[in-house]
């Protein structure tokens, strides 16, 4: 039973390491041709719109490779005598308990309020589907609402899911981040972004 759990965990870790690399490879293959098709009004020698997706793809592939090497290489455990081993085990247990208790951020509800008697394991389970729905909504709203509005709403939603700051700080952070990202891509890198309803 323990061996099966360990095998499943190892497969999950390997998949977790491989997915960013595969996504990066897909970005390298698919995105440059789409950028060429949509930005034909730029000069033919311009590779500027392709720069960011290619850099991001290579970073994803590199991170995936480093993580994969780290998982596949066997980790060596330091040799401890019996007194040190007992002390280390107690320290790890108390540290992990402190980490679990400090997961709640200021202003967030406690685990017991969010899950009832489900415990810390299910405390944030509802955030994963909401995060996926939020990103799907962002992609769908990007062309109709425009980059600035869709990005602002998406960042506001992410901040709400993480529950890290007060609402006025969340609005300020989402607005500033959206404007900075828009300026960097639209004005500095001259990459056309969807403008939405207001053209």
From TrEMBL:
Composition-biased stretches, type Basic and acidic residues, lie in 90-100
What residue ranges carry the coiled-coil annotation? none
The UniProt transmembrane annotation reads 12-35, 55-75, 130-160, 166-185
Specify the superkingdom: Bacteria
Which stretches of sequence are listed as region Disordered? 83-118
The UniProt keywords, alphabetically, are:
Membrane, Transmembrane, Transmembrane helix
**Pfam families in the record:** TctB (PF07331)
All copies of domain DUF1468, residue ranges: 24-194
This protein is called what? Tripartite tricarboxylate transporter TctB family protein
> Which organism is this entry from?
Paenibacillus sabuli
